[in-house]
Amino acid sequence: MRRLPVLWISSAAMTLTLNIPDPLLRRLETQCADVPRRVLEGFAAEAYRSGSLSRAEVGQLLEHESLWETEAFIASHDVWPSPSVGEAARDIETLSTSL
């Protein structure tokens, strides 16, 4: 089993290491050229969807050069944050008064 370093956060002192069995890692590497980057992007996408990270934090984590690069990432992963109950209620009220 090889250790796969997955995550370096800028100059922060955190490194995340995943232990992935060699056969599984070889299969993943045939489907994805940069497995560590894919894992990091998956984490960022889920953290944004759940509200754990802001759009700006996603851009920082992924070292995007612009807001538009982050927007494109969010759109390509279809991870728009879920609306809160209050936001949904306001939307319903707005729609019902508009019709």
Write a structural description.
- The chain has 99 residues and is α+β, with helices and mostly antiparallel strands.
- It is built from 5 helices and 2 strands.
- The protein has helices at 22-31, 35-50, 55-61, 67-77, 85-98; strands at 2-8, 15-20.
- A two-stranded antiparallel sheet has the order 1-2.
- The chain is elongated.
- The mean pLDDT is 83.
Topology summary:
Elements: E1 2-8, E2 15-20, H1 22-31, H2 35-50, H3 55-61, H4 67-77, H5 85-98
Antiparallel strand pairs: 1-2
Task: Please sum up the structure shown.
This protein has 99 residues and is of the alpha+beta class.
Number of helix segments? 5
C-alpha geometry: elongated
Radius of gyration: 18 Å
Q: Give the overall average pLDDT.
A: 83
Distance between the termini: 61 Å
User: DSSP strand (E) fraction?
Assistant: 5-15%
Largest sheet entry: 2 strands, antiparallel
Query: Fraction of residues in helices?
Result: 55-70%
Order of helices and strands: EEHHHHH
How many beta-strand segments? 2
Structural class: alpha+beta
Task: Pick out the low-confidence regions.
Answer: none
Side by side, the strands of the main sheet go 1-2
